[in-house]
Specification:
- By secondary structure, this protein is of the alpha+beta class.
- The chain has two domains: 17-158 and 324-386, D-Maltodextrin-Binding Protein, domain 2 (3-Layer(aba) Sandwich); 161-321 and 405-437, Periplasmic binding protein-like II (D-Maltodextrin-Binding Protein, domain 2), CATH 3.40.190.10.
- It has helices at residues 56-73, 87-97, 111-116, 124-128, 166-171, 180-194, 209-219, 239-253, 267-275, 288-295, 337-347, 350-359, 367-371, 380-386, 398-404, 407-416, 422-437, and strands at 45-51, 76-82, 103-107, 145-146, 149-150, 153-158, 161-165, 225-228, 231-234, 281-284, 305-308, 324-330.
- The protein has a five-stranded mixed β-sheet with strand order 2-1-3-12-6. It has a three-stranded antiparallel β-sheet with strand order 10-7-11.
- β4 (145-146) and β5 (149-150) form a beta hairpin.
- The two termini are 32 Å apart.
Length: 440
């Protein structure tokens, strides 16, 4: 099982899911609780692609899910397991040959790209007619919603928080920061005590830089871009984005809480420094914990590390972080779309959707299930942040802007190195971002 690193993300969700059920398209599937009866699709078989390893817990989940589906609809399910690294080639071949599945698991950052290829079916009506699916908060439907049409259902999610040296905080009498100013003060206190070669709050300027920048942008009320009528408009020059960007670059340029010599370091490199006692805080996910514990040979464990949510500027709650995770969708060329939609509705419904998330180490999408994580020492910060999670522009070209062209990483370095003002750097970046997102 793998959570895709986000290269595409959420367009603004203007769809009211409660009103989706009145449109055209395929007839809604039978409800997960029974509906038209267990023989509605008797004699039919659908193919489902699951991504990742068929570990025992996942095999058990699919066995139970498919048995319940058989009981409710009379239909059988054939499951094919595909390794995450092989998924793109598998989908591409299926599109070319017209030999895809009926239902597929998919990384939520991949939805926009595959909708552009015609690989996924419009399931707007089904979502609008499913009471349980409408319990999933609107902020979690961004990746799945393209031009007001829904093409996938969130299945399990993830986000990021600040990993910090809990033992250093205790030693130096530092309280968990609730504001941006407190975050800077904590970072400076760490450097003063631990040395100038330590990053108090590590600046990420690598390919995954926007995962660390975005909470400050969103926390200041900014955004990256919005889509209006099929055209992307950059928001990088607006006050909210500018304020978050200024703060992020000031971590190095003004406050000096991260080294100027490491403007291109990524989360993996920061993790290595963290395990070697050279980082006090940085933005990452829970997946870093096991590696840090193992590579430190037991020197860094639960007593030394913890997570806290990234705060909003003035302490009025937590900042949104990116929404990662996996979805389930109906294949565009499926000849059994009604059966497939019924399957998606059951799999992503409250019972099996919550179980899928827990079995795979993800966060459940249902608010009451997510609330149960509030007392978990590792997941509490992620659950708190996930309730307000957001995403990047849901456009296939986002990967080029984010990784290939490194639009914002270049802007950050230009500011920190004194080559451009913040206004100039963001104006240039905004123009480049719009060009990339609007290219076909």
């Amino acid at each position: 099982m793998r959570i895709w690193k986000l290269a595409a993300a959420a367009a603004a969700l203007t769809l009211s899911l409660a009103a989706c059920g009145s449109g055209g398209g395929a007839a809604p599937p039978p409800p997960a609780g029974g509906g038209t009866g267990p023989t509605s699709f008797a004699g039919q078989t659908i193919t489902v692609w699951r991504l990742g390893d068929p570990a025992a817990v996942n095999e058990k989940y699919m066995t139970d899910l498919n048995a319940k589906f058989k009981e409710q609809t009379g239909a059988d399910v054939k499951v094919e397991w595909i390794a995450w690294p092989d998924a793109q080639a598998k989908w591409t071949a299926a599109i070319t040959a017209g030999s895809g599945p009926d239902v597929t698991e998919i990384g939520n950052d991949q939805v926009a790209a595959w909708v552009g290829q015609g690989a996924l079916a419009d399931i707007t009506d089904m979502v609008g007619s499913a009471p349980e699916l409408k319990q999933i908060p609107e902020n979690l439907w961004g990746y799945e919603t393209i031009e007001n049409k829904v093409y996938a259902v969130p299945w399990g999610g993830g986000t990021r928080a600040v990993l910090y040296r809990k033992d250093w905080f205790q030693e130096l009498n530092i309280q968990v920061p609730k504001t941006w100013d407190e975050l800077v003060t904590a970072a400076k206190t760490i450097i003063a005590a631990k040395g100038s070669d330590v990053d108090g709050f590590a600046f990420n300027g690598g390919a995954d830089s926007n995962m660390s920048l975005s909470p400050f942008v969103w926390g200041a009320g900014g955004d990256f871009a919005v889509n209006n009528g099929g055209k992307w408009t950059g928001k990088l020059t607006e006050p909210g984005f500018k304020e978050g960007f200024q703060f992020y670059t000031d971590l190095v340029a003004k406050h000096g809480v991260s080294r100027r010599s490491a403007l291109t370091q990524n989360a993996e490199e920061i993790s290595t420094r963290f395990q070697n006692n050279l980082v006090g805080m940085y933005v990452t996910g829970a997946w870093d914990l096991d590696g840090i514990k193992e590579r430190s040979n037991g020197k860094i464990g639960d007593a030394q590390i913890g997570f806290f949510s990234i705060p909003n500027k003035d302490g009025n709650g937590v900042a949104p972080a990116f929404q990662g995770g996996n979805d389930i969708a109906v294949w565009g060329d499926s000849q059994k779309k009604e059966v497939a939609q019924a399957y998606v509705q059951l799999a992503a419904g409250k019972e099996f959707g919550t179980r899928y998330a827990k079995d795979n180490g993800l966060l459940p999408n249902y608010p009451d299930a997510l609330a149960a994580y509030a007392s978990d020492p590792v997941n509490a910060a992620f659950a708190q942040t996930f309730s307000v999670a957001k995403g990047f522009p849901a456009d296939p070209q986002w990967a080029e802007a984010n990784e290939t062209k490194a639009v914002l990483q270049n802007a950050e370095r230009a500011v920190i190195e004194g080559k451009k003002t913040v206004d100039q750097a963001l104006a240039d970046a905004n123009a480049e971002l719009e060009t990339i997102l609007n290219s076909q």
